[in-house]
Inverse folding.
């Protein structure tokens, strides 16, 4: 199809959502944006990418970190900017819109589904898995204990949900916020990607 397609992928920690999103980007010839969005936002704002990394999908960054070192702000003049969580969010949202206008994209998280809610040819996917499945995957990836993996998942998802819910007015991970929700634990990542790809082809009427 001639028009750009946009695939937004939300994911639980340890669900394999990022890997599935990358497979979808490869299959549909889309540009892939996960952490890459932070680099785009940094370029748009003139601030250091490290600054966006520290605030990535978290709310309340400035309330919790008063010991920020000025080099994080790159070449921009901090004192000429009204800087807040909201301004960081705006820079990132602008980067998402700009990327979506330029080519077909797969975006991972960062409320891209909400940011691009008025764009055509957008589909919003959420990937989940059982807690046991996610703990096993995190343990394997990080080489940590089950207790450590559970703690990481619980804390990370609490921050992710708070960020998403605050900026979108929707509920992170709840089916009404997405076009398709799927559990990757049943069939594995590759087979889950195939099911999603079939759904996407029908959604966009791609032959």
């Amino acid at each position: 199809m001639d028009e750009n397609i946009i695939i937004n992928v939300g994911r639980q920690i340890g669900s394999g959502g990022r890997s599935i999103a990358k497979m979808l980007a490869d299959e549909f010839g889309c540009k892939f944006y996960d952490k890459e969005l932070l680099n785009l936002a940094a370029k748009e704002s003139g601030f250091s990418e490290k600054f966006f990394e520290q605030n990535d999908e978290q709310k309340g960054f400035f309330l919790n970190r008063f010991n920020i070192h000025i080099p994080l702000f790159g070449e921009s003049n901090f004192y000429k900017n009204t800087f807040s969580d909201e301004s960081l969010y705006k820079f990132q949202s602008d980067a998402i819109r700009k990327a979506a206008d330029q080519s077909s994209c797969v975006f991972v998280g960062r409320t891209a589904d909400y940011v691009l809610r008025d764009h055509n040819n957008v589909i919003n996917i959420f990937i989940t898995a059982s807690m046991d499945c996610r703990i096993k995957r995190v343990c394997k990836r990080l080489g940590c204990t089950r207790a450590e993996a559970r703690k990481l998942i619980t804390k990370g998802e609490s921050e992710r949900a708070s960020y998403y819910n605050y900026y979108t007015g929707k509920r992170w991970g709840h089916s009404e916020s997405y076009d398709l929700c799927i559990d990757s634990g049943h069939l594995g990542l590759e087979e889950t990607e195939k099911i999603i790809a079939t759904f996407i082809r029908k959604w966009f009427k791609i032959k």
Summary: Residues 114 and 168 are 6 Å apart (CA to CA).
